[in-house]
């Protein structure tokens, strides 16, 4: 994200702003079966990219890919782009690329 594209907001406390990866339309299963866009999907977690974090967020940073429950979401639109706002504790996982060299770091919650 270039400085010109910087979001005109500052996140507070433990809030995380993410941009969800949209999987609209038809998709294929791991076995190659075509699943139509109208198919009902059970409770399924979704991946998103962290765009901004509040000053009390300790386990993620902008650019990380995180896993969250899309049914527990508050959406907001900034400059014509839809984002999801949530608390850090509502994230279920962080993609492992950044965590490879983290060693024994733990995320303690108070």
From TrEMBL:
- InterPro entries recorded for this chain? Chaperonin_GroES, Chaperonin_GroES_sf, GroES-like_sf
Keyword annotations for this protein, in alphabetical order, are: Chaperone
**A Pfam family in this protein?**
Cpn10
The keyword Chaperone belongs to this UniProt entry's keyword annotation: yes
A GO term, aspect molecular function: protein-folding chaperone binding
Family listed: Belongs to the GroES chaperonin family.
Quaternary structure per UniProt? Answer: Heptamer of 7 subunits arranged in a ring.
Q: What does this protein do?
A: Together with the chaperonin GroEL, plays an essential role in assisting protein folding. The GroEL-GroES system forms a nano-cage that allows encapsulation of the non-native substrate proteins and provides a physical environment optimized to promote and accelerate protein folding. GroES binds to the apical surface of the GroEL ring, thereby capping the opening of the GroEL channel.
The protein depicted here goes by the name 10 kDa chaperonin
Q: Can you name the source organism?
A: Mangrovactinospora gilvigrisea
Give the organism's phylogenetic lineage: Bacteria, Bacillati, Actinomycetota, Actinomycetes, Kitasatosporales
């Amino acid at each position: 994200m270039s400085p010109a594209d910087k979001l005109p907001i500052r996140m507070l406390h433990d809030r995380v702003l993410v941009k969800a990866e949209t999987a609209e339309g038809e998709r294929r299963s791991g076995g190659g079966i075509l699943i139509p866009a109208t198919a009902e999907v059970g409770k399924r977690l979704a991946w998103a990219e962290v765009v901004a974090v509040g000053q009390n967020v300790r386990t993620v940073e902008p650019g990380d890919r995180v896993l969250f429950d899309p049914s527990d979401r508050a959406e907001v639109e900034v400059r014509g782009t839809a984002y999801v706002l949530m608390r850090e504790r509502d994230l279920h996982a962080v993609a492992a690329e950044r965590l490879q060299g983290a060693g024994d770091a733990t995320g303690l919650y108070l």
